[in-house]
Design goal:
This is BTB domain-containing protein. The protein has 6 helices and 6 strands, in the order αββαααβααβββ. By secondary structure, it is of the alpha+beta class. The two termini are 26 Å apart.
Length: 118
C-alpha cells in the first residue's frame, strides 16, 4: 500500500541521517552508525550486547573488523526497513565483497567468518 511504501521510505531516509545515532560500527574499511533502540528492537544479540555490562554498552562501539561498510549498509537497511535495495547488493558484488546471506531463520551472515542473529 502507499502508506507502507511511505513508511519504508521514511525509515530508509532515517537510516542515512547521522544526527542522533548512538552506536558506531568499527568495520574493515570505515565506520557505519545506527540507533541503539533500532538495533535492540531488531536483534536479541544487540539487545544483550547494548544492555548488559559489556564493552559495547559502555562505549557504544561494536567492532566487526571482518565486515565491509557496503555489507553493513545492506544489513542496516534490512534492519531499518525490512527491505533490501538492489543497488546495495550490486555495489557489494561489484566491489568483490560478500553480501549478507540469510542462512536460517533469523541468522544473517555479515562475512564469511561471522554470523549474527537478528
Amino acid at each position: 500500500s502507499t502508506q507502507t511504501e511511505m513508511h519504508v521510505f521514511a525509515l530508509n531516509e532515517r537510516m542515512f541521517m547521522d544526527d542522533d545515532k548512538d552506536v558506531t560500527f568499527e568495520l574493515a574499511d570505515g565506520r557505519e552508525y545506527a540507533h541503539k533502540a533500532v538495533l535492540k528492537a531488531a536483534s536479541e544479540v544487540f539487545a544483550v550486547m547494548l544492555a548488559q555490562d559489556m564493552q559495547e554498552k559502555a562505549t557504544g562501539v561494536i567492532a566487526l573488523p571482518d565486515v565491509q561498510r557496503r555489507v553493513m549498509r545492506v544489513f542496516l537497511r534490512l534492519v531499518y526497513t525490512g527491505h533490501v535495495d538492489a543497488s546495495d547488493w550490486e555495489g557489494a558484488q561489484k566491489a568483490g565483497e560478500q553480501a549478507p546471506e540469510k542462512e536460517e531463520e533469523g541468522t544473517v551472515t555479515l562475512s564469511g567468518q561471522r554470523n549474527m542473529t537478528v
